[in-house]
Every structure is written in C-alpha cells, then in structure tokens.
Specification:
The complex is a heterotrimer of chains A (243), B (551) and C (129). By secondary structure, chain A is α+β, with helices and mostly antiparallel strands. Chain A contains three helices and eleven strands; from the N terminus they run ααβββββββββββα. In chain A, α1 packs antiparallel against α2.
C-alpha cells in the first residue's frame, strides 16, 4: 500500500539530524571565533593567520559537501521511487465537464500506477470540496451554510484520486498523510494514497493554495474506516441516495 | 558639466529637486535605498497587522478581504519595492566607489529607473484607495486567480502595473551597474581584484538581466488577459504562468541575498583586520551559486505534477556546496583575527547564524517528499523568512553600520547598535521558530483564521510577540539613525581601517569620488598600502597576511 | 584591459552545463527547457556585447573624458511619461494625450542635454590639447 507518511518519516529521520548538526557546529564556530579572536588591545601578540587562501583544505571541504549533497539526493530519489503518489496526470479519464490538460512528463520514472481498489474524483471549487465515488454512485458534497464535506475512505487499501478544479488553482492537503497536490482548472491530476489508521483525522484536510476570499475556510473532514465499516457506510449512503 | 570641467558655480532650483533629478550615483543610490527603506517600514507595518490578526483564532483586527490585501502587499512590498531595490541601490552607491570610478555608466537610465520605482510604489499602495482594494492575489498572483474573473478591480490592475514598473526599474539599474563594472574600473582594477561586494553585484546584475524579463513578460501578458484577451486561459496556461513567475521568483531571492552576504563579508574582513580569505574560490562559488539559482525555480512547483521534480531537487540540493564555500571563507576570515566587535560585525555574525536556519531548511524542502508536506504551510513561511530576514535584513544592517560613515561622514552609535542587534536576533528567533512547528503540524499559509481545535494558538501568539520585539529593535535603529545623522561623531574618511577603495576618499565622497585613485595591486588595495607602511615603519616584526591574494 | 566578457561567458557556460544536464539526464517540459536555454543564450549575448564594447576606441572609459549634466530634468519627465502611459489603459485614454505632451518635452530636453554634452567634451578636448 502507498504510505506517504512512511516516506516522509524516513527522509525526516535523515534530514533533521544532519541539519541540526550542521547548525550547531557552524553556530558554535561563529561564536567561538568571535570570542576567541576578539581584539584585546595593543599588547596582543597572538599569531595572525598567515595565508589568505588554502585551496587544498577548501578543495577537500568542497568534496565533503558534494558527498553530503550526493547522499541526500540519493536517498531522496530512492524514496521517491516508492513514492507512488508522484505520478503523472492521467490521460482521457475526463468526465463530461473536465477537459484534459497538458500531457505530463513525469511518467519517465517507469512507475506504473499501483493497483487501486477505490476510485475517488475530487472537485475543488471556491471554497468547497466535492468527492465523487464513480464506481459506487456516491457523492460527498457540502450541504451549504459552511458545512464541511467529509472524505470517507477505507483503510488498508490504495485509493486512486483524480482531481480537478472548477475555477482557480487549489491544493488538496491532508497534513496527517504529509501529502498535498495542486488542483488545476481544465486539467486532471492523479495520485494514489493509502490510509493506514482508522478514525476521524482531527485536522482533516485543507486547501493549501491561496484561492481568494474564503481560502481559510476551504476545509474538509477526513474519515478513514476499516473495510467492513466502510462497506456498511457505502450501503447506507447508497440507500440514502435512492430513498 | 564634466569630469574635466569645473562644476557649475550656481545650483539652480531648490536642493531637493536637484537631488531628485541628479545623475550623481551617490544621490541615485541614496534615493533608491531611501525609498526602499521607507517601503521596508511600510511592509513591516503590514506584517504587524497580520501577526496581530493571527495571534488568536477567529477574526479580530480585519476582514478576510483586508487580510488578503495585507499579505499580498506585504510580500509584494518586500520583494518588488524593498528587497531588489535595496540590493541594487547598495550597488548604485558603492560599486563606483569600490572600483575607483567617477560615476555610473548610463546615469540617466538609473534616474529613469528611480522614477519608475517611485511610481511603482505609489501605485501599489494607491490600490488601497480603490473600491475593491489593493492587489489581493498574493505576491505571485497565479493565474487564473489573478485574472479579471478571479480578482476583478482597479486595485489589482494597479498591482500588475506596479510590479511591471518595479521590475523594469531593476533591469535598468542592473544594466547600469554591470556596464559600470565592465567599462569603468580604475587602472589596475582587474576583474579578479574587484572587492567581494562588487563581485556580488556582478552576479546579482547578471541574474537580474536574465531573470527579470520573464516577469516583465508575465505581467504584460497578465495585463492583457485582464483586459479581455485570453492568454493564460488555455490548457497549460496556468503552468506557463508559474514557470514565468518562478523563473523570476527564485533568482530574485538570491539577488536580494548575494549583495548582503558580501556586505557581511566586507564587515567581517574589516572588523577582523585581515584580508578576506579564499577570494578566488569565493568568487567562483558566487558564479556557480548564481548559475544554480537560475536553475532551481521548479522546486516551487513540486506539487503541481508538471515539472521534473528530480532535476530541480538535484540543482537545489547542490547549492549546499557553493553556500558551504561562502561560510568557510567567512569563518576563515575571522580565524586568528583581531576582531573588533562592532555592530556591523555582530550583524554579519547574525546573518551567518540566522540565514543558516533558512539555508538548512531550504535543503529540507528541496526533497520533494518532504516538500509535499511543507509546501504552502508555515514551515515554508518560516524557511524563507529565515533566508530573507536572516539574509537580506541582517546583511543589510551589517552593510548599513559598515557604510553609514562613508555615506554621511558620521558614525552610528555603537551601543544602540548592539541593542538593535540583540533584540532583532531575539525577535527573529521568537517570531519564526514557532512557525516551523505549526507548519509541520499542517497550518497552511495565507489564512486569516485557523480552527481553534487545531492547537496552534499558543505558538501563533508567541510568534506575534516576536514580531513586536522586531518592531522594538527597528525603533531603536530609527532613533539611532535620526540621532546620528545630526549628532553622530564625525567619522573621517576611514574609520574602520578599511581594505577597499571607497575608504580612500572623503566621507561623504566628493562629486566625482576620487581626487586620485590609489594604486590597485590586489582585492584589498588599501590594506596593501597600510601593510607596506607598517613594514617600512617597523621591520622587526612582519605583520599579518604575508602573501596577499593578488595576481 | 576589460576582461568582463570572460566572466559573462563563464557564467553562460555554467548555465549551459546545467541546461545540458537537464536535457540529457532528466526529462524537462518544453517551457523549462526553453527558459534555461534562453538564460544561457542571453548571457552569451551579453558577453559578446561586453567584448565588442571593450574594443570600441571611442568608449568614454578609454578617453578619460566624460560629460554628464549634474541633473537631468528631461529624464524625470521621461519617467513621468512612462508612468502616464502605463496608467492610461486603467484610468482613461486621456492620460495618453498628457503623456504625449510630457514625452515631447522629455525628448526635446534629452536632445538639448546631449548636444551640450558634446560641446562640453569638445571644449575639454581642445582645452586639454
């Protein structure tokens, strides 16, 4: 299953200690140098720096930096290889109102879209969200009056999202999954997500791209259910839709 | 009329009018920097308004519409009206002095640029007086939000025009600075003897000339789009706009960084009383840095699924190498020095430490999977405020404390300068560190309000307290500025034992800068002369860095 | 004496290297490809300009004589003209007429400044010789 949290956590565990370490070392050096080499008046006869360049030392230092950069890039690229969410917009899945946008170049990774067990169409519009489940005939939309739309998903399976916008650029962001993706008008964006933990996500989802007046209120709820509960929910929603 | 003719005996017209139409690079530099500083204060006030609104959930201070205008104009002011003009304005004033020239090449273009810049600033703020309010589509104004449907009204039109004018002005200044460096160097001042600050202006001007046309084009097209002709309303148009915008928008954050990095380096070398270390590698790394920074714009588009994330991740991470060289050289310049802990030196150290947070977090968001979480959240707000506040603002103050005596002939008060520094350091940490945490927890940008249940209230309140500490530090600086302009101790031509040519002339310098340009044999010509004099005087103990860095 | 063009050429080459890396190893979209390529090309053109300008004999830097007026009111007028022109589509076409007037004044002023500059340079040369 796609696990964006896991990818994020792996890289977090690599980048954070390096960043904090470098910060501490350089800050200490700045402070120590400023204190130790401060001017102490006329009878100061400590040795001065004798050279104004030292290409050998700097060269090896540059090599070290290049190695660090190469390592970071290597691990990032490796993790991105698993990053199934990072897939191109899919061609010709457009529904009636959706025209397909420019073909995308990110398919060169050779990653096939992971098999998804559920299809959800996301439609963003100022300042609300709509989630369609085309295979199940369910639509989750705001009832108006500032009520938030709830995204209901099953846990433990891959969910394929296909997203578009009806007006300006929005961005679909679920903090708990450490994942966001932009929604463009006249264009489809696809990505696959997996939800590991069941329950209502306390922070839910946000629109992360500024979209005008009520951008701050463009939120949605996220509710992940165990597969059985999800099936029950689907049945109930289908009955509601008919009844 | 000319360098060889006596100056006119009678000054026609009132003095202010003379300065506002002056072709003297010192007047021009002061006009641009002064204007940029006024906009810096205005942009700062807008930031305080935002922090007041965000101190607690719900709306207290202003409406949603007002908040959107405020953050848009804050960001736009800081880039288009403060950052780039201030960086290039430093260059307009200092570059001719540092290379021993009598003035700028194409001074009229620079003057024209100042008036366009002034107009740009007035028009952007005039937007607040229009019916729909000022520009409110963010400093990036992504299409289609910024088109006539997404953001109608005259205020937004004025914003587009204002950005267009300010970008045009920046290009005129950069062209003049670059041409001056290429064509007007004093005898002996080869390219590899340019002071590091002048080198930073070489790369900043190059980047300006390469990157700014992209935004000029974007603003032109956006204006046309807003007046009826579809430009970006084609499939792929929104992405096209983002490419044009970020092709300008990433280089510009380095254009407002390099000159202040170099200002800090000059302050460090002068305070330490030693030749700047590793000059050639520093210069080479600046050039490579600039080349990389023109190649990283796509990292702003990681979550659009329409760029090759790997390429932009690679170029962005590679910046570790070039930035590391700059840190190495600054530290090695301090090594075994006789450092005078002046305000300019403190700000240069503050620059190194505070910018470092921004730099390291920049490497963080260069990794796409980490950016998928951080993008457009407060983590990114904290990140780039550490680069811009740490880099541009701390570096600017290092430069101001360093060069104020040259410009005015008076010294700024050092005790107030230390207060200014420590409060600003404290304020910078208290304001932006909490934003890393709320961002990591998912607080997105550009929101006037956030849910109380999210648990972000305490951290936001802390951040607001920090913003007011920064205000306090700036008030101390303003008091220092006003007091020192009138009562500051006279500085004489060379108060810091300077290394570069600008310290060889009087403070402030005369109309054509130098009665006679001293000989130039390295990138620290005045230090050479001082060392020679010291050796002549006492040959029993050779002083300081022997071999020099000149070729 | 001016080696500025070498610096620009070096920078153009650096950009060129990144451009080639982007094109050879990665898979850029057309816009990214064109933007980075044009950055490199623009810099190369600027290097060419610097090279040619450095060769021109009558360049002021080589002569040592320059004449620039201390103040250029005509330039200020030109700036105001540009401001009026860009405002015309927003605030009303009549601004364009005002701009035409100030523009005429500005150009006239610039021509006058230019000719008096030439006179000053000539006078300085004759005086110096």
């Amino acid at each position: 299953m796609v696990d964006t949290r896991d990818t994020w956590q792996d890289l977090f565990n690599l980048y954070l200690p390096i960043g904090v370490g470098v910060f501490v070392v350089i800050t200490l050096l700045v402070v120590i140098f400023a204190v130790r080499y401060r001017d102490r008046g006329a009878e100061d006869d400590r040795p001065r720096r004798r050279r104004s360049h030292f290409t050998g030392a700097e060269g090896s230092y540059i090599l070290l930096l290049a190695l660090i950069a190469a390592m970071l890039v290597y691990f990032t690229f490796t993790e991105m290889g698993d990053d199934r969410a990072n897939l191109p917009a899919e061609a010709s899945t457009g529904t009636g109102e959706l025209k397909q946008g420019g073909a995308d170049e990110e398919g060169q990774d050779g990653i096939q879209a992971p098999p998804a067990e559920l299809e959800i169409q996301v439609t963003a519009a100022r300042w609300t969200w709509r989630f369609d489940y085309p295979e199940l005939g369910i639509t989750q939309a705001s009832g108006g009056g500032g009520e938030l739309t709830t995204l209901v998903v099953p846990t433990g399976v891959n969910v394929r999202f296909t997203m578009t916008s009806l007006d300006v650029i929005h961005s679909f962001y679920i903090p708990q999954l450490r994942f966001k993706r932009d929604a463009f008008p006249e264009r489809l964006t696809s990505f696959t997500l997996g939800f590991t933990e069941p329950g209502d996500y306390p922070k839910g989802g946000f629109c992360a791209e500024f979209c005008g007046l009520r951008h701050a209120a463009m939120l949605f709820r996220v509710s992940a259910m165990e597969p059985e509960r999800f099936r029950a929910w689907v049945t109930q929603r289908q009955l509601e839709a008919r009844g | 009329m000319s360098a060889t003719l006596p100056p006119p005996a009678v000054r026609r017209g009132p003095r202010l009018l003379g300065i506002l139409s002056s072709t003297d690079h010192k007047h021009l530099g002061l006009l641009v920097c002064g204007g940029a500083f006024v906009f810096f204060c205005l942009g700062g006030l807008l930031a305080l308004l935002m922090r007041s609104e965000l101190a607690a959930p719900e709306l207290q201070v202003m409406s949603l519409n007002a908040y959107n205008q405020v953050f848009t104009i804050h960001g736009s002011t800081m880039f288009y009206l403060f950052g780039a003009p201030m960086a290039l304005g430093f260059g307009l004033y200092l570059v001719p002095l540092q290379i021993g020239a009598s003035g700028l090449r194409w001074p009229r273009l620079v003057l024209l640029g100042f008036w366009l810049f002034l107009g740009a600033g007035l028009l952007m703020y005039a937007g607040f007086l229009t019916q729909e309010g000022a520009g409110r589509a963010g400093w990036f104004a992504f299409d289609p939000l910024s088109d006539d449907v997404g953001t109608p009204g005259t205020g937004m039109d004025l914003w587009v025009i204002s950005v267009f004018l300010s970008v045009l002005a920046g290009m005129l200044w950069a062209a003049s600075i670059l041409a001056t460096i290429i064509r007007h160097r004093a005898p002996g001042m080869t390219m590899l003897r340019l002071p590091v600050f002048t080198w930073s202006m070489v790369v900043s001007s190059l980047m300006t000339l390469v990157a700014f046309p992209a935004l000029l084009l974007a603003m032109g097209l956006l204006f046309i789009e807003r007046h009826g002709l579809d430009v970006f309303t084609q499939p792929g148009g929104a992405i096209f706009y983002q490419h044009l915008f970020w092709f300008f928008g990433h280089p510009v954050v380095y254009i407002v960084f390099f000159p202040f990095l170099a200002a800090g380096s000059e302050a460090i070398a002068t305070s330490a009383g030693q030749r700047f270390f590793g000059y050639k590698l520093f210069v080479g790394s600046l050039l490579a840095f600039a080349a990389l920074s023109v190649s990283v714009w796509g990292h702003h588009m990681f979550v659009t699924s329409s760029v090759d994330n790997r390429f932009f991740s690679l170029t962005t991470t590679a910046i570790i190498v070039v930035a590391g060289v700059e840190y190495f050289d600054n530290l090695a310049t301090m090594f075994r020095g006789r450092i005078k802990l002046r305000a300019s030196f403190l700000f240069a150290c503050g620059f190194m430490i505070v910018f470092l947070i921004g730099g390291l977090s920049g490497i963080w968001v260069a990794s796409p999977p980490l950016d998928y979480n951080a993008h457009d959240t407060y983590s990114v707000v904290a990140h780039f405020h550490y680069t811009l506040f740490g880099g541009t603002v701390f570096g600017m103050f290092a430069g101001i404390y360093h060069w104020f005596p040259k410009v005015t002939g008076r010294l700024l008060d050092e005790r107030l300068g230390r207060w200014h520094f420590w409060l600003m350091l404290l304020g910078g940490l208290v304001t932006f560190i909490p934003q890393f945490f709320v961002g990591e927890q998912g607080m997105v940008r550009r929101i006037a309000d956030y849910p109380e249940t999210a648990g972000w209230t305490a951290l936001n309140a802390l951040s607001t307290v920090g913003a007011f500490i920064i205000l306090l530090s700036l008030l101390i600086f303003l008091a220092n500025l006003i007091r020192s302009l009138r009562l500051g101790k006279p500085s004489g031509p060379d108060p810091w034992d300077g290394h570069t040519l600008e310290w060889a002339t009087s403070s402030p310098p005369p109309r054509y800068n130098f009665p006679a340009v001293p000989p130039v044999r390295s990138y620290a010509p005045l230090l050479d002369l001082k060392e020679e004099a010291a050796e002549d005087e006492s040959s029993h103990r050779p002083v300081a860095s022997g071999e020099g860095g000149s070729q | 004496m001016s080696r500025g063009w070498v610096v620009m050429l070096a920078w153009a080459l650096m950009l060129g290297v990144v451009w080639v890396v982007q094109w050879a190893i990665f898979d850029p979209d057309l816009i990214a490809f064109v933007l980075l390529g044009s950055a490199s090309a623009t810099t190369a053109l600027m290097a060419l300009w610097a090279l040619l300008a450095g060769r021109r004999r009558d360049a002021p830097a080589d002569e040592g004589i320059e004449a620039t007026p201390d103040a250029s009111h005509a330039t200020v007028l030109l700036g105001i003209t540009v401001l009026l022109l860009v405002l015309a589509p927003v605030l009303g076409g009549w601004l364009a007429f005002t701009a035409a007037g100030t523009g005429l004044l500005a150009v006239g002023g610039l021509v006058r400044e230019r000719s008096s500059e030439r006179r000053a340079v000539r006078a300085a040369r004759e005086g110096g010789a």
